[in-house]
Amino acid sequence: MSAKPVVLRQVRLGSDGPIVDVRIVDNRLAAIGEVIPETGDAVLYHRGATLLPGLIDGHVHTAQWAERRRRIDVQRARSASEAVELVAAALRDRPPVSASDVVMAHGFRDGLWTTPPHKDLLESALPGVRVAVMSQDLHAIWLSPALLQHLGREDATGVLREQDCVQVNYDLSRDLPPELVDRWVLEATRAAARRGITSIIDFEYADNRTDWVRRSEQGPVPVRVKTSIWRPWLDEAIELGLHTGDPVPGGHGLIEVGPFKLVADGSLNTRTAYCHDPYPEAAAGERHGLLLIDEDELVTLMTLASSNGLDPAVHAIGDRANTIALNAFDRVGCRGRIEHAQLVRPADAARFARPGLITSIQPQHAMSDRDVADRHWPDRTAAAFPYGSLLRAGATLELGSDAPVAEPDPWHAIADAVHRTDDDRPPWHVEQAIPLPAALKAAAGGRRQLIVGDPADLVLVPEDPATLSNADLRALPVLATLVAGQVSFLADDFGNE
Question: Does the domain at residues 57-62+180-449 carry the CATH identifier 3.20.20.140?
Answer without folding.
Answer: yes
